Amino acid sequence: MSVRDMLESVIKRVTVFKNKDALYPEFIPPTLPHRGIHIKQLAEIFKSLITSPGSMSLRAMLVGGIGVGKTVTARVFGYEIKHLAKEQGLDLRYVHINCHRDRTLYEVISEVIRQLGIPIPLRGLSPREMMIALLSYIEKHNIYVLITLDEFDYFIHTAGNDAVYFLVRLYDEYPDVKKRLNFIFIARDLTALSTLDPTTESYILKHLIKFEPYRSKELYDILIQRRDLAFYENTVSEDIIKFIADSEGIDKGGEGNARSAIEVLLLAGEAAEHEGSHIVLLEHVRKALTVTHPDIVKVSDELNFLQLHELLLVKALIRTLRAKGTSFVRIGEVEEEYRYICQLYNIKPRKHTQIYEYVNNLKHMNIINAKLSGKGLRGRTTLLSIVAPLDALEKRVDELIDKRLTTERNTL
DNA sequence: AGGTAGACTCGTCTCAAATT
DNA sequence: AATTTGAGACGAGTCTACCT
């Protein structure tokens, strides 16, 4: 293949992406599925910012794990309230600071000033002096500011108690001045706060909003939204989205992390593109999952400890999954395939009860996923799936089956 | 450890009666 | 005539008790 050919093949390659940006972590979606209450709570806390601006300095604390929508909620809220204020003739600015990057008091304040575009020299002033300059500037120009301190834990750690105290109790010294700075703090958990002195802590915790990990149903809605934004129509089916949502949802054993769910969708799309496929297939998702969740690789280790019949069952599951091309297959189908495979190997198949035991075992070892059928299926059944890439897994399973069979013959 | 039988449970499916 | 509703059929795991 000539260089030219290679270039062409890359350029002309079919793409499934309409707008990849919608899958990057920085992307701010137009709406926030399942975060409505949090926005409402924020609105409740900050409403006097609009109704009686300057009467008090408002603060809220957002707490939750990774990828549960804290940052994006703050951003969207900031954007909206800024525009709402504007309609009221109020100059309210929103500033988002990532304390992971700016983790000292000096860095935070200068970043605030920079983002506001205020002409204050950033060098040669102490944080305190900068703050005073900032306050007098916004007083002069009648500006209000909502500052989000994202990853506040870092700030607490490196900047320490005094810095937090300074920020939080800023207005204590000047009770009569208009309160123009308002804060949203974002942290993963509240442990970092315990290093603060109790009064400062209670000051911050006045308004606490908790973010719970996403359930798979919620992730589904989020992923559908992103899919519609990022992919061409009919390139990613609902089944695919469901599969990702189920493997990441907190209620299905995942982490409830939307960020990684979206990343899986991105990587799956890239895998499809890489293979020149015009649609995203389950196999692409499985590949993506192994990249984002290296612990899946661990699964292949655990295979070593399985008994022969469990291996055969895994193989049966792999084959039915592949034959069906769906994310889940019914236990009955797998059992049938299992019996067929046993026949091939000339082994006596185990009966139903035992199969059921195996399935439970495999489930507990996290080698396969199992869930009870809900709506849409006649009767009650257990649906089985595998997260790991099928091809690689089957190869491994085959090896192990052969090994078991030979050792068994030798012992006989 | 593996198997059998049978009762149990749940949720969909079907179809017809009831309702609008 | 069209839609809604609900009882019972039915499918398919699940559980239990007991056997080999």
TrEMBL record:
Keyword Nucleotide-binding: yes
A UniProt-annotated Pfam family: Cdc6_lid
Binding residues for ATP: V68, G69, K70, T71, V72, Y214, R226
Domain of life of the organism encoding this protein: Archaea
InterPro entries: AAA_22, Cdc6_C, Cdc6_lid, ORC1/CDC6, Orc1/Cdc6_arc, P-loop_NTPase, WH-like_DNA-bd_sf, WH_DNA-bd_sf
Keywords, alphabetical: ATP-binding, DNA replication, Nucleotide-binding
Annotated ranges, domain Cdc6 C-terminal: 314-397
GO molecular function (one): ATP hydrolysis activity
Protein's GO biological process: DNA replication
HAMAP family to which the protein is assigned, alphabetical: ORC1_type_DNA_replic_protein
Record-stated family: Belongs to the CDC6/cdc18 family.
Function comment: Involved in regulation of DNA replication.
UniProt cross-references to PANTHER family, sorted A to Z: CELL DIVISION CONTROL PROTEIN 6-RELATED, ORC1-TYPE DNA REPLICATION PROTEIN 2
Protein name per UniProt: ORC1-type DNA replication protein
